[in-house]
């Protein structure tokens, strides 16, 4: 696994050629129709530009500069928190990640090449903030919009909640294995939400041959997860919300190898387990206690995401949570 410092160093070294060839399609032989669908999904110009060329755009005026400013503010906030941790640190009883990291920094202080330094502590904490909050909440926001659009699905989830959990106790993680329909719905929400269509940028650490292309060392590569999540070879109706994509003929949960919203490989999402747990518990707890309603008729609900380059955000919508 390349280190954070290495990742940033390599990122600075990326060549123009590297950028041009950096975006790989998952399937070289896809037909024109599929390509069109992909273009539509990826057509989110401003955010996409920022994601691809953030190093260059920082020199130009525009709204994107606010992103940098906001990040600096959050970093300063985390820096302040690190100082408070430092003051209260009890080496015999570390309280959290920052405490543990500080102790490790102390242990490695004589190693000038250690990755455990102040800057990486700030970056790691910042990454966890973003990666751990915006992701699950955005997926849930998409999920509830889909429940408004497809009320019969919400109704079936509620029936399963009634059967397996009932009204008197909160959902527990053990319930998930007994609730294949709900689990399939959550999988399908994640597939349609397509939260990070381009995944996160990676750097190839050595010259790499891939389907006739040579990708030079140091090239930035975006693994386009969206193509897998909408691959018609794996999903019968790739652009339609249909929980059956994840159910077999007996109604049991069906795994699908193209379901890769968390990416795959060595740098697969670190939080996959916690994210799947959160999605299940929040989704079922809310639907156990509330039905959802919209001022807009289901057929008029628009699922088109807001323009955004890095992640896909659901459009703003109104929802009513009615106590059961
Ligand atoms: C629905 C929820 C989530 C989705 C769809 C998601 C998706 C992803 C994806 C696609 C990546 C990029 C992997 C790669 O580089 O190939 C990633 C990385 C990461 N995610 Fe998540 N994520 C979610 C929730 C979370 C949560 C809850 C946490 C932490 C509590 C988390 C922590 C991370 C971290 C730390 C990384 C970087 C891992 C690395 O670079 O080694 N994620 N996530």
UniProtKB/TrEMBL annotation:
<dbReference type="InterPro" id="IPR001128">
    <property type="entry name" value="Cyt_P450"/>
</dbReference>
<keyword id="KW-0479">Metal-binding</keyword>
<dbReference type="InterPro" id="IPR036396">
    <property type="entry name" value="Cyt_P450_sf"/>
</dbReference>
<comment type="similarity">
    <text>Belongs to the cytochrome P450 family.</text>
</comment>
<dbReference type="InterPro" id="IPR017972">
    <property type="entry name" value="Cyt_P450_CS"/>
</dbReference>
<keyword id="KW-0472">Membrane</keyword>
<feature type="compositionally biased region" description="Basic and acidic residues">
    <location>
        <begin position="20"/>
        <end position="38"/>
    </location>
</feature>
<feature type="compositionally biased region" description="Basic residues">
    <location>
        <begin position="9"/>
        <end position="19"/>
    </location>
</feature>
<comment type="function">
    <text>Cytochromes P450 are a group of heme-thiolate monooxygenases. In liver microsomes, this enzyme is involved in an NADPH-dependent electron transport pathway. It oxidizes a variety of structurally unrelated compounds, including steroids, fatty acids, and xenobiotics.</text>
</comment>
<protein>
    <recommendedName>
        <fullName>Cytochrome P450</fullName>
        <ecNumber>1.14.14.1</ecNumber>
    </recommendedName>
</protein>
<dbReference type="InterPro" id="IPR008068">
    <property type="entry name" value="Cyt_P450_E_grp-I_CYP2B-like"/>
</dbReference>
<keyword id="KW-0492">Microsome</keyword>
<keyword id="KW-0349">Heme</keyword>
<keyword id="KW-0560">Oxidoreductase</keyword>
<dbReference type="Pfam" id="PF00067">
    <property type="entry name" value="p450"/>
</dbReference>
<keyword id="KW-0503">Monooxygenase</keyword>
<keyword id="KW-0408">Iron</keyword>
<keyword id="KW-0256">Endoplasmic reticulum</keyword>
<feature type="region of interest" description="Disordered">
    <location>
        <begin position="1"/>
        <end position="38"/>
    </location>
</feature>
<dbReference type="InterPro" id="IPR002401">
    <property type="entry name" value="Cyt_P450_E_grp-I"/>
</dbReference>
<dbReference type="InterPro" id="IPR050182">
    <property type="entry name" value="Cytochrome_P450_fam2"/>
</dbReference>
């Amino acid at each position: 696994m390349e280190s954070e410092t290495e990742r940033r160093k390599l990122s600075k070294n990326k060549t123009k050629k590297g950028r041009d060839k950096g975006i790989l399609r998952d399937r070289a032989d896809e037909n024109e129709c599929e390509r069109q669908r992909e273009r539509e999904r990826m057509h989110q110009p401003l955010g996409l530009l920022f994601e691809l060329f953030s190093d260059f755009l920082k020199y130009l005026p525009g709204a994107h500069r606010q992103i940098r400013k906001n990040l600096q503010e959050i970093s300063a906030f985390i820096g302040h928190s690190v100082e408070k941790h430092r003051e209260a640190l009890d080496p015999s009883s570390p309280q959290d990640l920052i405490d543990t990291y500080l102790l490790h920094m102390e242990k490695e202080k004589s190693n000038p090449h250690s990755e455990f330094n102040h800057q990486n502590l700030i970056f790691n904490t910042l990454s966890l903030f973003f990666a751990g909050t915006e992701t699950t909440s955005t997926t849930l926001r998409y999920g509830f919009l889909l429940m408004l659009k497809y009320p019969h699905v919400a109704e079936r989830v509620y029936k399963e909640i009634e059967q397996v959990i009932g009204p008197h106790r909160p959902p527990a993680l053990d319930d998930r294995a007994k609730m294949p329909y709900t689990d399939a719905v959550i999988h399908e929400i994640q597939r349609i939400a397509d939260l990070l269509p381009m995944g996160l940028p990676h750097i190839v650490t050595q010259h790499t041959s891939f389907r006739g292309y040579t990708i030079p060392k140091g090239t930035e590569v975006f693994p386009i997860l969206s193509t897998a999540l909408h691959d018609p070879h794996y999903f019968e109706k790739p652009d339609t919300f249909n929980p059956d994509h994840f159910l077999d003929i007996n109604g049991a949960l069906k795994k699908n190898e193209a379901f890769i919203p968390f990416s795959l490989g060595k740098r697969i999402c670190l939080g996959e387990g916690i994210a799947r747990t959160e999605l299940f518990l929040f989704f079922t707890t809310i639907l156990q206690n509330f039905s959802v309603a919209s001022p807009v008729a289901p057929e008029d609900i628009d699922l088109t995401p807001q323009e955004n380059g890095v992640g896909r955000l659901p459009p703003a919508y109104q929802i009513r949570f009615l106590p059961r």
